[in-house]
């Protein structure tokens, strides 16, 4: 459903009297067969799942608040609220509810006095089946009124009836007039009765009564009544605190009178709930749910009104970032923003997103950077709370700001480095601030909540930034402690944990920062003492050796082996040297082998000719193909000649190694002895370029001679497949030769 009029947020009241967000969806009213009645249905806008299915019970009291809210209780301890995006949608659903209950939609609270079920009529006492008759509001009737109010609290039906009677007769204002008279007469008994009466009216849990009690005209008298708790020897002085001690500070003058009144009212009602009223018992827990809702939605309205006042917020930020602003004024501004952000938690998610985006656009993060570096502990604490709201809202927004800031500022004044320094330098013995900042820092560098898109990877960008600009600040205390022989094992455990990840990203940072130097210095300074430090360092290097972490092994051997080679009571460091040399040999061998490597196609052709070519060149060490008709007795003779040639080649100078020609082949220079020349009287020296012989049209090889030479290097043997140029005379001799030499590999 795309109709925004029916778009709602579903809330439920938890055990701590806080509203929990159950999701956003679209509401409808329809007949549900299973519930056998008209019901409210809310389906999630994300996947269409059912968020709420609530039958419109004729006996349930629904309350309409602030034009976009409908609140009701499903059971004694289960309150629900629908917060509509638009007033029109709220009005439509309210009309449906009133239609089911037979009420006029103009009312703000539906009543179940007429349509109660037969079972409820049977359970209720006869005198409660009609409206409650209130005693005359006089001093001598206060005890009777107090007993009446107290007696109805256990019955939801009677609470509804009493609330309606109090509202219709304007009874609350009459009671408050009696309070003034009792206080003037110092009538302590009457004041104690009024305490019970006002407390009981609050427990009726009705928003319409709260509107009267918390108005500017009545609220201070309500607070006055609640000062005279019979359980106290002396009355409290709540009114004195609210009027004299508690001062309303306007960091920027608020010109909207309605907004000012709403702020005053919310503060006082919050004070009544948190300070004046005693902690409710299990029986009374649900009695104040509407009071909680009243405060909750007041805060929503305050934030919305402030956010809509563009001039107000702009002026606040201008003063907060102005260098001329004195410390006291800046402290007030920071405390304002702290409370402002706390109030914003009551907003619906889409409104909360808009709120924080507005703050970010106005420059809340640069402002925090200034105030978090101040000496005032109260200011730093408030700034930390604001920062926590921002990180919780969007870690990515904070990361983006920090990376952009690094392009214009030094590392020392970066916001994230200021956070790290505040965490490290926390003077609180309980480390409360440090623990809070540590949690925020962990959230910022947690790869799990970093975004990865097609055009940018936040994880790699921010982590690279963090290691370059921030890691040295974070690790400075660890390295300092290590160099001063303090907390060595703790620093080693930290480094061991990092190396244990076997992540080349961390390894590169360790080698680039030369972080092994203090570790090795600590080992050398420790001497021959066999203690925890010694064991921890040895285990660290042994892990690197066993796991064969090549980058760290090379770094250690190349930079520190001379200092470590004298340590012989363990074989760890010699083992690292061995690993290093083995890896170096492998790399050299691989490099040399690449010099002889040819493309795959040429190599396959050479191998094919090796097995299929049936020609030989006299005077060369040739392994000729075996003919099926020849006996195996010929094999030893040719093998001896082959081995003689091989030994001769092993003694050749390194100058005979192959060199690549401009044509892409390999150039070999061979020097053959007389015996190896197979009857030649002089030493033959030939420079030959490897070629791939063309094939004739019938698929046979053209008249070429292939020579395979074994070239032996210092380590391992490298075999090259070499084609020699055509030699028609040798080819003719080959054709007339009565005997073929056997192939070694056949």
What does this structure look like?
This protein has 30 helices and twelve strands. It has a seven-stranded antiparallel β-sheet, with helices on one face. Strand 5 and strand 6 form a beta hairpin. Helix 10 packs antiparallel against helix 11 and helix 24 runs parallel beside helix 26. The two termini are 80 Å apart. The C terminus is likely disordered.
SSE inventory with pairings:
Elements: E1 7-13, E2 19-32, E3 37-44, E4 50-55, E5 62-65, E6 69-75, E7 78-84, H1 87-101, H2 118-123, H3 142-152, H4 156-168, H5 171-185, H6 188-203, H7 207-213, H8 219-225, H9 238-245, H10 257-276, H11 289-308, H12 310-321, H13 327-344, H14 349-362, H15 364-371, H16 377-393, H17 395-406, H18 415-424, H19 432-445, H20 458-469, H21 471-483, H22 488-500, H23 504-512, H24 516-526, H25 532-547, H26 550-564, H27 572-596, H28 600-612, H29 634-650, E8 659-660, E9 666-671, E10 685-689, E11 705-712, E12 717-724, H30 728-736
Antiparallel strand pairs: 1-2, 1-7, 2-3, 3-4, 5-6, 6-7, 8-9, 9-10, 11-12
Helix pairs in contact: 3-6, 5-6, 10-11, 13-16, 16-17, 16-19, 17-20, 18-19, 21-22, 22-25, 24-26, 25-27, 26-27
Note the quaternary state here. single chain
Number of strands: 12
As a whole number of angstroms, the C-alpha radius of gyration is: 45 Å
Structural class: alpha+beta
The backbone outline, from C-alpha atoms, is: elongated
Largest sheet: number of strands, sense, barrel closure: 7 strands, antiparallel
DSSP helical segment count: 30
Measured distance between first and last alpha carbons: 80 Å
In spatial order, strands of the major sheet run: 4-3-2-1-7-6-5
- The fraction of residues assigned to DSSP E strands is 5-15%
Runs with pLDDT <50, length 5+? 112-129, 615-639, 652-746
